Amino acid sequence: MADLFDSAPEPPRREDIAPGAALLRGFARGEDRALIEAIDAVVARAPFRHMVTPGGHAMSVAMTSCGSAGWVTDRRGYRYASDDPDSAQPWPQMPPVLRDLAQRAAAEAGFAGFDPDACLINRYVPGAKMALHQDKDERDFSAPIVSVSLGLPATFQFGGLARSDKPRRYELRHGDVFVWGGPTRLVYHGVLTLKDGEHPLLGRQRINLTFRKAL
C-alpha cells in the first residue's frame, strides 16, 4: 500500500473564522519534512522542557523556542527572554524555512509584512493539554499570532475576549495553520487533551509552532 503521507496533498483552503482570524487548511503540509528537520536542529541545541508556572505547576506541554526571544515561565512569572534559562546561551536562531512559512501564512490571512522574532515550539503527547489563555506577554499587539500544527490532530478552542466566553472548537490536522490578529488578537484559546494515536512522521506526538512579534 502506498504511503498515504507521500501522496499529493490536497490544495490548501482558507476558512474565515472571525474578523482577523483564518484557518489555512493544509497550508504547511507540502513542506512538513523540511519543517521537522529544522525543528530537530533547534531541539538539538535547546531541548524540550516542562516549564513551571508561577503557581508551581509543571506544564503538561513540553516547550522550547528559537529566534531573538523565547517564552519562559517560572516562579517569577511569564515573560520573554533573549537567553535559554537552561543553558544561559541565546536561543537558536529561527531557521529560514520556519520564518518564511510564518510570513507567507500571515500574508495569506491578511497580515502582510509580519516579521516574527520568536517561535515557540510546543510538544504534546497523549494526555497533554493547554488551558484557555491569552497571548499577552508580547509588547506589540498589532502583529498576529501564526500557529502551525504538525503530527497528531488536536482540538483547538477559540473563544472571545473574556474567559467566560464559550469557545468554538476546531480540529487541527497535520499541516494546518491558524492565524489570528487585529480584533481577535487577544482572544482566549487553548487545546483540549490530546488523544492517543500514531502519525506517520512524528509518531505519538503533536508539534505546534507559534510565531509572534515579541519584542
UniProtKB/TrEMBL annotation:
Its EC number is 1.14.11.33. It catalyses: a methylated nucleobase within DNA + 2-oxoglutarate + O2 = a nucleobase within DNA + formaldehyde + succinate + CO2. Its cofactor is Fe(2+). It holds the Pfam family 2OG-FeII_Oxy_2. Binds 1 Fe(2+) ion per subunit. It is an enzyme of class 1 (oxidoreductase). 2-oxoglutarate binds at N122, R123, Y124, R206, I207, N208, L209, T210, F211, R212. It comes from the Bacteria. Substrate binds at W71, Y78, R79, Y80, D137, R163. Fe cation binds at H133, D135, H189. GO terms for cellular component: cytoplasm. This is Alpha-ketoglutarate-dependent dioxygenase AlkB. It comes from Rhodopseudomonas palustris.
